């Protein structure tokens, strides 16, 4: 069993690093392999919307003609059995650009031949699972930024073939881990239970 942290954070946050470290240590103590894919450290360019990668049918994502590190990211995603997807939101009126760019390149997970009105997900059956964590500094709970962040993260999860088990918005706190420790373990346990169910 392998859990992949897909870190879509746009800005460096000590708080988010603490969350990843806490969950990683928790998985380690239970003997569950886990790795972090930090997208801001990879060279991933914007999608040109040429749709070349969408022309070939099949269940596997298709490699892009752009030679950057997106193919490497997809290979690592495919190797995992479950995911912790993390993203931040620091502005009420603009989207996280790292997550946005990554999500657009996930078109590789869609079949969309020219002439077809809409795309078809390659991963029709969501055989994997995920939990979503959004670090949000826009202050107002359940405002537009919280809702759109959740929707965008859910789309990322479904694109890669993972069913969302739970999600949690994180807001800045003086003692972040003390505030969210119980909740984070609860989410992690849901992810682990899903892995055990798949294994059996």
Question: What is the fold's blueprint, element by element?
Answer:
Elements: E1 2-7, H1 14-29, E2 33-38, H2 70-79, E3 82-89, H3 97-105, E4 110-111, E5 120-121, E6 128-136, H4 144-159, E7 162-170, H5 176-199
Parallel strand pairs: 1-2, 1-3, 3-6, 6-7
Antiparallel strand pairs: 4-5
Helix pairs in contact: 1-5
Cα gyration radius (Å): 17 Å
Low-confidence stretches: none
The total beta strand count reads 7
Main beta sheet, described? 5 strands, parallel
Q: Give the SSE order as H and E letters.
A: EHEHEHEEEHEH
Q: Helix tally?
A: 5
Indicate the proportion of strand residues: 15-25%
- Structural class based on helices, strands and sheet pairing: alpha/beta
Into which percent range does the helicity of residues fall? 25-40%
What's the rounded overall pLDDT mean? 90
- Note the gap between the termini: 12 Å
Describe it.
With 200 residues, this protein is of the alpha/beta class. 38% of the residues lie in helices and 21% in strands. It has helices spanning 14-29, 70-79, 97-105, 144-159, 176-199; strands at residues 2-7, 33-38, 82-89, 110-111, 120-121, 128-136, 162-170. Strands 2-1-3-6-7 form a 5-stranded parallel β-sheet, with helices on both faces. A two-stranded antiparallel ribbon has the order 4-5. Strand 4 and strand 5 (120-121) form a beta hairpin.
